[in-house]
Amino acid sequence: MRIARFAAGGDPQYGIVELADDGGRYPETVSVLTGDPMAMSVQLTGQRKDLDGVRLLAPVIPRSKVVGVGRNYAEHAAEMGQDVPETPLTFFKPNTSVIGPGEPIVYPGASRRVDFEGELAVVIGRICKEVPIARVPEVIFGYTVANDVTARDLQKTDGQWARAKGYDTFCPLGPWITTHQGLEEVAALAIRTTVDGELRQDGNTSDMIFKIPDLVAYISSYTTLLPGDVILTGTPAGVGPVLPGQQVSVEVEGIGTLTNPIAGTRPEETSKEAEQ
């Protein structure tokens, strides 16, 4: 099942996305739901809308936090000139950084280098703490696509990552949440990121150092996870910069593609204005 959050001229709603078959004989639609899927209290309204006629929003706004995982792919750690961590390297992104498909990532004036980081994201479905690895499937609601946008220069100068990864618009999520996949299936999914159609990242979740059960168990050992919290599982090698005017797309096999334009002022333009 694919659960989307969308707007169609009114307040945000949830719906079940039904994609067209390979022959294109049926339109892609959203069957409208009442209630909040995170509260497990939803019903079909009987209303159906064309997917092209609605605006997809971030499929979830975390009620408390987004937890990121750094250097969870060996080749990415190597390209950053850093060692693989012995235990998961985690950090927080505020929920105000979350945006949905098609919304612009805003280039902050304080940065001269903003990078994309395509990732698989885990959406938590229930309150949990100190989850044993064997019970991790019980607390996962589903999966979505994420872009852990990072002001790389500020990450280096600050020494800690709150500002570099926490700007508004720095956590695109979408296009929807898939709830039908098991841990074995998501353990081997291709992740590809393109910038203006040019392939930049081509990885696979099978290359994660710490797998999803390890991450959920570790993170829940020190913080209570709430329904709607999101875990970003790390990015493969190939991260790189984007500039205003470009468009970045992250595709996770079997889940979907998340596309966002980059907005703001190019760093070289800011420098020229400062000199005048």
Quick rundown:
By secondary structure, the chain is mainly beta. The protein has helices at residues 74-79, 152-158, 162-166, 183-186, 212-220, 267-275; strands spanning 2-7, 13-18, 29-34, 43-50, 55-56, 66-70, 89-93, 98-99, 105-106, 114-116, 118-124, 140-147, 150-151, 171-178, 190-195, 198-204, 230-232, 240-242, 247-252, 256-263. The strands form 3 sheets. Strands 1, 2, 3, 4, 5, 6, 7, 8, 11, 12, 14 and 17 form a 12-stranded mixed sheet that branches. Strands 9-20-19-15-16 form a 5-stranded mixed sheet, with no helix packed on it.
Cα separation of the termini: 55 Å
What number of structural domains do the residues give?
A: 2
Order of helices and strands: EEEEEEHEEEEEEEHHEHEEHEEEEH
The radius of gyration over CA amounts to 19 Å
- What fold name goes in the CATH topology slot of the largest domain? Fumarylacetoacetate hydrolase, domain 2
Largest sheet: 12 strands, mixed
Number of strands: 20
Name the beta content range.
35-45%
Q: Report the CATH C-level class of the largest domain.
A: Alpha Beta
Proper CATH architecture of the largest domain: Alpha-Beta Complex
CATH superfamily of the largest domain: Fumarylacetoacetase-like, C-terminal domain
What's the helical proportion of residues?
10-25%
Give the low-confidence spans.
Answer: 271-276
